[in-house]
């Protein structure tokens, strides 16, 4: 079982059939009213905020609700690769659960077909990541792979084009997107795209910043990239 906390994250996990069986549900008396009927065989344990906090890792901001649920299983990269259309997002060694959670929210908001990340150097599908994703973790299919370069080869064979975001690229994202099946590749918070991952991209692109600021937070860059991609897709319909 894995703990998921925070109102949006826990309610979304409880509504996701993939998270069964449910072990425990901890809630304050006020928040318990929002849950409705619990899963069969599971009762809602009504506790104080402090009592809920004692059951969770230090610093967990639970908002009066936490649930122990089954681990969320990743999808296979082949499942995301088939029937190439739309947009996928690849995260190259993003380790901050707040940033990954924010990226997942953008992926859900702008209709990305899925997200690809490594099975190492990436946060688990629970806890802080689930809280930061505010329910999007339960909506967006995620593939975990051992090697991102090989994953890009698999996607290329299935008809996907990979665009890597890099601040020093010559081409811009907006002029490069054309509505074709596209993988947007985002680098880590500090180092950006690694060399081998960058070399497996079809093209490196940048987000123009006329204000002169050098770089964006990776979550902000991901949101802008997904918005641009969704606009181009809508224009093709």
First-residue to last-residue Cα separation? 43 Å
Say what the CATH topology of the largest domain is: Alpha/beta knot
Strand order of the largest sheet: 7-6-5-10-8-11-9
Could you name the ranges where pLDDT drops below 50 across 5 or more consecutive residues?
A: none
Q: What proportion strand? A: 15-25%
The tally of strands reads: 11
Strand count, sense and barrel status of the largest sheet are: 7 strands, parallel
Tell me the structural class. Answer: alpha/beta
Could you please describe the fold and organization of this structure?
The structure is a single chain. The protein is an alpha/beta fold. Helices cover 36% and strands 19% of the residues. The protein has helices at 7-15, 29-35, 49-55, 77-81, 97-109, 127-133, 148-157, 173-176, 195-199, 218-236, and strands at 2-5, 24-27, 44-46, 65-69, 87-91, 114-118, 142-145, 161-165, 171-172, 182-186, 203-206. The N and C termini lie far apart (43 Å).
């Amino acid at each position: 079982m894995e703990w998921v906390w925070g109102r949006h994250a826990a309610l979304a996990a409880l509504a996701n059939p993939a998270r069964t069986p449910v072990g425990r549900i901890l809630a304050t008396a006020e928040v318990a009213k929002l849950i409705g009927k619990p899963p069969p065989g599971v009762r809602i344990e009504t506790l104080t905020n402090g009592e809920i906090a004692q059951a969770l890792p230090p610093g967990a901001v639970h908002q009066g609700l936490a649930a122990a649920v089954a681990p969320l299983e990743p999808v296979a990269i082949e499942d995301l690769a088939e029937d190439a259309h739309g947009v996928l997002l690849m995260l190259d060694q993003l380790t901050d659960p707040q940033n990954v959670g924010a990226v997942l929210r953008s992926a859900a908001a702008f209709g990305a077909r899925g997200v690809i990340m490594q099975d190492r150097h990436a946060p688990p599908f629970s806890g802080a990541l689930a809280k930061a994703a505010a329910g999007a973790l339960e909506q967006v299919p995620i593939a975990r792979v051992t090697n991102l370069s090989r994953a890009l080869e698999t996607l290329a064979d299935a008809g996907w084009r990979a665009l890597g975001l890099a601040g020093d690229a010559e081409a811009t994202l907006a002029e490069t997107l054309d509505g074709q099946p596209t993988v947007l590749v985002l680098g880590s918070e500090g180092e950006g795209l690694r060399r081998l991952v960058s070399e497996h991209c079809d093209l490196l692109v940048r987000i123009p910043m006329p204000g002169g600021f050098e770089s964006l937070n990776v979550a902000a860059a991901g949101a802008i990239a997904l918005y641009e991609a969704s606009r181009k897709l809508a224009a093709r319909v």
